[in-house]
Model the fold of this input.
Amino acid sequence: MRRPMVAGNWKMHGTRASVAELINGLSRQVLPDDVEIAVFPSSVHLVQVSAELAGKAVVVGAQDCATEPQQGALTGEVAAFQLLDAGCSLVLVGHSERRSLLGDSDEVVTRKFAAAQSCGLTPVLCVGETLAQREAGETLAVVARQLAAVAGKLGVQVFERAVIAYEPVWAIGTGLTASPEQAQEVHAAIRSQLAAQDAELAGRVRILYGGSVKAASAAELFGMPDIDGGLVGGASLNADEFGAICRAAGS
Ligand code: PEP
Done:
């Protein structure tokens, strides 16, 4: 039985004041015990959010990490080791905004994934196709390639300590959501790709859906057999909406 997860990606949003307000709003939510809940603030707010969430059942993750796990001479980057020290237990790797706008290749994503795990962080590997790729019928091939880049280099066993997020690029921040059937097809393909190498592990790996998830669409998406929760961007900046999405993932 996989424990569902709902993760809020706050992207490059917030000030110390607005982040404090959002955490207050989250504290007022009734959150389900059977769902793992995580928030991913910008790196400048990680220490604040970790401190303000101390003792609460919401864990903290970062939105990216350096390819080098340890501190060193890499101006502007944040090492996985530093993220751990700041209170993180998770880190996103390969978010589509980083892949498409900031040049993170499959190779770079794989190095970040390995750096995160080497410090004890759980990577959330984001995969997904663009609209052009979907329209060309390449969705499953693109996602399979992104997954294989990590599994091929590091071995499938690394997914024992990782989460996968399927995020169609055309659905991120656009208000367009994949239908539950479209998402389920890709989630099932991801799971069977892992199962080809280790069926038991594949049955344990959590695969989240991301792409304009709202409270109104969450329950139907999370009701699909291979969808184990969500990675939520815009809607996670509203505590009431995010709380409702978390409850939709509960039993
Ligand atoms: C995301 O950034 O991971 C995301 C899914 O964003 P949104 O929910 O706003 O589409």
